[in-house]
Design brief:
- This protein has 10 helices and 10 strands.
- The protein is an alpha/beta fold.
- The protein has a domain at 8-78 and 207-251: P-loop containing nucleotide triphosphate hydrolases (Rossmann fold).
- The strands form 2 sheets. Strands 6-7-8-3-9-10 form a 6-stranded mixed β-sheet, with helices on both faces. Strands 2-1-4-5 form a 4-stranded antiparallel β-sheet, with helices on one face.
- Helix 7 links the parallel strand 7 and strand 8 (203-207).
- The model has no long low-confidence stretch (mean pLDDT 90).
- Bound molecules: adenosine-5'-diphosphate and magnesium ion.
- Pfam families: ABC_tran, BCA_ABC_TP_C.
């Protein structure tokens, strides 16, 4: 039997998504479909609107125009906690952990809404603690459970953030530059985690500048330039597309 394109199911999809800041149109009519069950990469030069795109679809900011759907459900302009409830988890380009809280405290607050975070952090449920310990072991930092987050290396903080995202058991995980500023040993660990979690059924949408990582990890690559998709396809095809070389190198 031949596998046809119809076998690919959409995960996150946008049509004409647009967001301007004053005179700068950061996302400019982006029409993009990511594939369910796959590792998708979103690449593009600095300032091409990747983080703003993430922010628009995860409810951190509201788009000016266009639509976003998640597995066919409209999520356009929805607040971040509602987007999270549909099954999307995300990390941030500038890693977000609470520096003066311990690793375990960060895990316990990761699944709570912002306003209640501190109050509820003390309400410790043994099952949640077990789950947190399991995930910390999975990302390889369980020995740091009692350390304050600020004492971890940047790569370890990224692993903590990822473990926190996993606390909510999202079916889709959006990572904004997971390897940025991380040493090579920990980059390998992050790559292996993405592969294993994908094999367990999780969809990934990863913004990343490390091209070796993008090419080795992803099934589907979307290329952004000036706020919109200019090219998409399997990594081997995208890598050789003249539009991609032009966007990156200006040739
Ligand atoms: N909050 C903001 N206010 C003003 N301009 C912004 C803001 N966020 C992003 N931009 C601008 O939007 C463009 C896209 O930025 P960004 O989404 O961070 O790109 P990328 O993640 O691809 O590097 C850039 O020109 C950036 O300066
Ligand atoms: Mg960015």
């Amino acid at each position: 039997m031949t596998v046809t394109a119809a076998a690919v199911q959409p995960n996150l999809a946008t049509v004409g998504l647009t967001k301007s800041f004053g005179g700068v149109t950061a996302v400019d009519g982006a029409t993009v479909t990511f594939q369910h069950g796959k590792v998708n990469a979103l690449i593009g030069p600095n300032g091409s609107g990747k983080t703003t795109f993430f922010n628009c679809v995860t409810g951190m900011i509201k788009p000016d125009a266009g639509t976003a759907t998640y597995r066919g459900r409209d999520i356009t302009g929805k607040a971040s906690h509602r987007v999270a409830r549909t099954g999307i988890g995300r990390s941030f380009q500038l890693c977000r952990v609470f520096p003066r809280m311990t690793v375990m405290e960060n895990m316990l607050v990761a699944v709570r809404s912002t306003s209640l975070r501190r109050q509820l952090a003390s309400a410790r449920d043994p099952q949640e603690l077990d789950r947190a310990r399991g995930l910390l072991a999975r990302v390889g930092i369980d020995h740091l459970e009692h350390s304050e987050a600020r004492d971890l290396s940047y790569g370890q903080q990224k692993l903590l953030e990822l473990a926190g995202v996993l606390m909510a058991d999202p079916e889709t995980i959006m990572l904004d530059e997971p390897a940025g500023g991380v040493n090579p040993a920990l980059i390998d660990r992050i790559a292996n985690l993405v592969r294993d979690l994908n094999a367990e059924g999780k969809t990934f949408i990863v913004v990343e500048h490390n091209m070796d990582l993008v090419m080795s990890l992803s099934d589907h690559v979307v290329v952004f330039d000036r706020g919109r998709q200019i090219c998409e396809g399997p990594p081997s095809v995208v890598q050789n597309d003249p539009r991609v070389l032009e966007a990156y190198l200006g040739i």
